[in-house]
Design brief:
Distance between the termini: 26 Å
Order of helices and strands: HEHEHEEEHEEHE
Strand content: 15-25%
Strand order of the largest sheet: 1-3-2-7
Number of strands: 8
Largest sheet: 4 strands, mixed
Helix content: 25-40%
Structural class: alpha/beta
Shape: globular
Number of helices: 5
Radius of gyration: 16 Å
Length: 169
């Protein structure tokens, strides 16, 4: 139905998917770890994952104004506390969360706060790790990715999804 009734007709439907990632007590049948793989290949579909509550509000504003099919994924619970004021979402644009020069962590969705925590722990060992909040998995921020890959340092992706077809792929 998503394919035939929404994206082929390029309708402005917003899919708000809670239980993204691993959902703990709800059990294995409720884990949301296949949505990226499933939806990414659909034409006319935009996919995003806010990092915190403030970004969820911005993602919803973007989706309402965008006028095409959008999927927004967020966790069932444990939505991270706001990490400051969230700038508006722009199609396919990531957000720098923590500067660094020795490596880059590309995080998607609620994992951004964990990536920042990791970067701060690594700073104690004199490792300077940049953290980028990808915000979108479709479309990807190609300019940011090119910049990160040209830097020639390690790049780590962090997400709550399966490996095949996920954000890191």
């Amino acid at each position: 139905q998503v394919f035939q009734d929404v994206v082929l007709q390029d309708l402005p439907v917003i899919f708000c998917m809670d239980r993204a990632g691993l959902v703990g007590g709800d059990g294995a049948v409720h884990h949301g770890f296949l949505d990226i793989t499933y939806l990414r290949g659909l034409p006319n579909m935009v996919m995003m994952a806010p990092a915190d509550e403030a970004e969820l509000q911005q993602a919803l504003k973007f989706a309402v104004d965008y006028g095409h099919a959008c999927a927004i994924r967020y966790p069932r619970a444990d939505v991270p506390e706001p990490m400051g004021e969230a700038p508006p979402f722009e199609l396919g644009q990531s957000r720098l969360m923590h500067p660094g020069r020795d490596a880059t962590i590309l995080a998607y969705g609620a994992t951004v706060s964990h990536a920042i925590d990791a970067a701060e722990l690594l700073a104690a060992d004199n490792l300077s790790v940049r953290v980028i909040n990808a915000r979108f998995v479709k479309p990807l921020d190609r300019q940011m990715l090119g910049s990160v890959l040209r830097a020639g340092h390690p790049v780590i992706t962090v997400e709550e999804h399966c490996v095949t077809g996920g954000f890191g792929s």
